[in-house]
Design goal:
Helix content is 29%, strand content 27%. It is α+β, with helices and mostly antiparallel strands. The chain has one domain: Aminopeptidase (3-Layer(aba) Sandwich).
Length: 192
């Protein structure tokens, strides 16, 4: 059984940073591992974020965060020069979705996203922005996730990424239990 929830202490948060380092720096090489000599991928947006985790067999196997707007802006807005519409007041950026290789799969990815979306709805967040790898975006759209493209793709982190947005109220109708058949290549892309 997999448990999805908010991070509850500093030790758990430290473990999430280690998973991000493992996935983003060592495995995918999207970020330079030399920039993180302590083996933890941490950035300036983490202090403005709420962090979620996935626990399987009492081990943390995945993470995703929601970044709140601050004086730093948001990575998606800073990178793609996106303007948030005036009517959108309560929004976050969904980022740093990472799952250890041994635990990757559709159920875990959807579980983490569902947990984040539910938390956002319960806490008045109306919209989520993200930078999503092109192949992952196409896969999520096939699954019914209501992401809307906000601009042209840009080569970042070793691949083409696209800025997207979704209205959190549109995630309520998603069927997280539907039986989806994965192709072999699909499992490797289940990372933001």
């Amino acid at each position: 059984m997999t448990i999805y929830r908010l991070v509850s202490d500093a030790w758990e948060k430290d473990e999430l940073f280690r998973i991000r380092y493992l996935v983003y720096c060592k495995e995918k090489q999207w970020l330079k591992k030399d920039d993180y000599p302590d083996g933890r991928e941490i950035d300036e947006f983490d202090t403005h974020s709420v962090h979620f985790l996935a626990l399987k067999n009492n081990s943390i196997v995945g993470t995703v965060r929601a970044i709140f707007p601050s004086s730093l802006g948001l990575p998606v807005i800073n990178t793609f020069k996106i303007t948030v519409p005036e009517h959108v007041i309560h929004y976050v950026e969904i980022s740093r979705l990472a799952v250890i290789k041994e635990a990757r799969g559709l159920e875990l990815t959807m579980g983490m996203l569902h947990t984040l979306f539910s938390w956002c709805l319960e806490n008045g967040v109306t919209h989520g922005y993200a930078v999503v790898e092109n192949s992952l975006l196409n896969f999520l759209i096939r699954l019914g996730y209501p992401f809307k493209k906000l601009g042209a793709k840009k080569y970042l982190y070793g691949g083409y990424n696209i800025p997207v947005c979704l209205a959190m109220n549109e995630t309520v109708t998603l069927d997280y239990s539907k039986n989806i058949t994965l192709k072999e290549d699909d499992v490797s892309i289940l990372i933001f």
